[in-house]
Amino acid sequence: MNNMLRTWIKDGLWAIVFAAVVAAVIRFVVGLGAGSGLNDATPWGMWIAFKLGFVALAGGGFTLAAVVYIFHLERFRPILRRAILMALLGYGSFIVSLIFDLGLPWHIYMPIISWQHHSVMFEIAWCVMLYFSVLVLEFSPVILEHPLFKHKFFQVILHGLHKAILPLVILGIVLSTLHQSSLGALFLIMPHRVHPLWYSPWLPYLFFTSAIAAGMMALVVEGFLVERWFKRGMHFDLLERLGAWVPLPLGLYLLLRLSDLFLRGVLPGALDGSWQSILFLTEILVCGILPIGLLAIKKVRESREGLLTSAILIIAGILSQRMSLSMFAMRQSTGLDYSPSLAETLIAFGIPAAALLIYLFFAENLALLGDEIPNPQATAKLRPLWMFSQDTPGRIIFARRSGLATFAIALILPAMLNLPISDTSANAVQPAIGWETLRIDGNQTGYIVDFPHVEHQERLTEQLGSKESACATCHHLNYPDDEATSCSQCHTDYYQPISIFNHTVHQKSLGGNVSCVECHETEHVRQSAAICQDCHETMTAQEGESVFNPFASSYKDALHRRCLNCHEQKAVELDKPELALCSTCHTYYESDQLQTNLP
Amino acid sequence: MPTWLLLAKGPAFYFILVVFVVGLLRLVVLTVWDIAAAIRRAGDQRLPYGQVVRQTLSWIFPFHKLHRLRGFYSYASYGFHIAFLLTALFLRNHLDILRDDIGFSWWAISKPILDVLTLASIVGAAILLFTRLYRADSRHLSRLSDYLLLILLLNIFVSGYVAGRAWNPIPYDGLMLFHTLNGMGLLLVSPFSKVAHCVLYPLIRLGSEVSWHLSPRGGRDVIETLHGLEGRKI
Q1: Contact at 8 Å (CB) between A318 and A210?
Q2: Complex confidence, ipTM
Q3: Chain B neighbors of A442, CB-CB under 8 A
Q4: Does A68 reside within a domain?
């Protein structure tokens, strides 16, 4: 991997993080309901799914800690620090995304003071808090070894931590075991919301065993990535050992899952051909039994491709199980369509992107990848911490990242704030003003048509015999109790035809939600609705149409048609060709000139 | 609605507006960063702050520089800058679109005055372009982007001026689309090019003043480097 590619990947991660920060601000400004696709019927979605994924990948932390400290398999020590960092970042991501998921995030401390002993959430909250603290303590020696902390004060802490590591590890194992299984227990309260192929009363055990398997395999994938990125620190022999052992927890997980489904008689459902059954079979066969088979063959396990493929398959299978449980397979039973919003998606991906950047930062600056100390030059000359130092490449990095952030923010902010991106479908009409002379300037250009209203009224009354029919020539439809509804009240769009039917008004005046049947005989769709004329007798069909058309033509078309039809006719009748010319009406008065002519 | 108006009122405009605003904020940070770095780096850090502030303020409207050298060029540059800012910011049509986009705007200058100003900025920009092309010292200091930005500006002025005329031979909507695209292009590149001085001019001047006064003989050194020991007034 060359430096160019590294920079590109980092920039890409930064771009996702920037976008997620914008999304996060919006999430907190507009609230949970408006900022995400979640609703009361589907209160758990993408964030929960990702959270379960984070902790699955963090499973390597307690597994490796147990292997090294409890079983004393010292040869795994070189990858222990990585495993603990993975767990730290995984649980950190869990906590950060929890802040977004809570309706009242400022209540996040409540489990500390308000104890609800019967709640699984209570156990989870405490386990996560304690285990995260334990992880911080377990990882802090790596940070304190950095020359920046060479002061005696830090060295005393470091010494204390080294002494306390064993109790910490035991505490960590206990807590994460409790936590992993209680995450599964969380779903025990919803047997009817989760698809039967994913629900199981043994979910706590499934979560625990699968976390071990996923955590081990995450270390394998991480090893490959680290090797590509840093050209060191892979320890293939250790990863191969992990590959040799993983069939144990994975096989146990599969055995528990399948035997539970079999004993409860749900297993035949896996063959019903629905997409859920296909996903289930893929999880079990392609991502479970196939990699176990692959890893059982020594030659495959010892090849880089074989090990990596198996690891990716296993991780995919376990992530799929957790995400199906919390998102895909749940949606089916609520009947309400849940699709994550843009802000939600960006936050969900932004958190792991940030975690990756933190990982890279630690790996670049700390003795993380086994026994090697990072580049001595980098540690020997510590960078000054003040901001305006010419020696640091800080300015270059800032210029680069902030340029990237500019574009990321510009792309997302308008889309997510739902800024009044001008409603191009509504070209509001300015109503005509006046009585004797109507000042018509529908599109507000200042080019006014000066319409002699009363003059037309008198002439039409003379021709048609009654004032009513004269008015009705133009005022062909009126609002209830109105005699002369103006053109712009129905023809509300200057350029486009627009429906004059107002569903809310009808629904309210007919009696609210029970009134559907008044108009919809069968189902609640437009096609089944009654026609306007059934109730409104004045709404008759126009020439050439079978029913009344509730679409009012555009203001421009409506006025031109109304005036031109008559003017063209009269031009012939009275032999006055100038009547039909544009300039007869469009005399192009500038607005301020006309104002002096108005009464 | 014609395409150009859709563009000016649509999401693309918001994108460009946010790039413009956030990009300029970024530039403020970078400029302050550089000024601070320059002060830190300088051996002699005593700055005549009063003088720096006075000079910066006087450069915002540099009337006293108007007749010094290259008077014709100075007047053209003056006319160009003032006319550009006034037409861009106080044209009724621009303000109407702006009100539609962001919900507020301000008073406008009457159209006939702006017509004259637009002509002035076209002439000014043309003179700046020709000076760059035909004066050897200007030409040597110019980069490709200097020419391109001037041409972009001329595109905007000329198309905007011609479009509304009765004698306009080109279809109105087509020309306005050209005008709008060029204008959006200008907004998009301004935080990343020298056009940024249309907003950040005082800050950029402050930067130059600070670096100019940093070392006791700084100004003289620059003159000597540019023009030899005898020093020619610039």
Answers
A1: yes
A2: 0.72
A3: none
A4: yes
Total domains present in chain A: 3
Residues A451 and A522 in one domain: no
Which of the listed residues A330, A364, A398 is the one where a domain comes to its end? A364
**Domain, as residue range, for A517:** 502-549
Q: Which residues of A touch B18 (CB under 8 A)?
A: 406, 409-410, 413-414
Cα A14 to Cα A117: distance, rounded to the nearest angstrom: 41
Q: CATH number, domain at A586?
A: 3.90.10.10
pLDDT tens readout for residues A168-191? 889 888 888 888 888 888 888 887
Residue of higher predicted confidence among A511 and A144: A144
Residues 178-207 of B with CB under 8 A from A: 191-192
Question: Under a CB-based contact definition with an 8 Å cutoff, are residues B162 and B119 in contact?
Answer: no
Q: Does A504 touch chain B (CB under 8 A)?
A: no
In a domain, A79, yes or no: yes
CATH of the domain at A44: 1.20.1630.10
A360/A460 same-domain check: no
Looking at the structure, tell me whether residues A433 and A465 fall in a common domain.
yes
pLDDT category at A273 given cuts 50, 70, 90 is: confident
Residue A483, pLDDT > 80, answer no
A390, A407, A420: residue with CB nearest B19: A407
Rounded Cα distance between B16 and A400, Å, is 19
pLDDT at residue A425, as a whole number? 46
The mean pLDDT of A137-145, rounded to a whole number, is 89
- A249: nearest Cα among A214, A222, A209, A284: A209
| A243 or A516, greater pLDDT | A243
CA atoms of A354 and A125, how far apart (whole Å): 23
Looking at the complex, does the CB of residue B218 fall below 8 Å from at least one CB of chain A?
Answer: no
> Minimal CA–CA distance to A85: which of A362, A375, A365, A372?
A362
- CA-closest candidate to residue A406, choices A4, A11, A9: A11
Query: Is residue A387 a part of any domain in this protein?
Result: no
What's the pLDDT at B167? 85
Residue of A395, A406, A427 lying closest to B23 (CB–CB): A406
Task: State the CATH architecture for B3-227.
Answer: Up-down Bundle (1.20)
In a domain, residue A598? The reply is yes
Residues A208 and A235 both lie in one domain: yes
Between A130-144, A165-179, A363-377, B3-17, the lowest mean confidence (pLDDT) is in A363-377
Counting residues of chain A whose pLDDT is more than 70, the rounded percentage is 90
Residues 385-424, chain A, touching B (beta carbon < 8 A): 387-390, 395, 398-399, 402-403, 405-407, 409-411, 413-415, 419-422, 424
Query: Does the beta-carbon distance from B6 to A388 stay under 8 Å?
Result: no
User: Which of B116, B128, B130, B35 is CA-nearest to residue B75?
Assistant: B128
* Band of residue A595 on the pLDDT scale cut at 50, 70, 90: very low
Query: Which of A323, A346, A364 is where one domain is finished?
Result: A364
Q: What is the CA radius of gyration of chain B?
A: 20
How big is the CA angle at A546 (ends A544 and A549), to the nearest 5 degrees?
A: 90
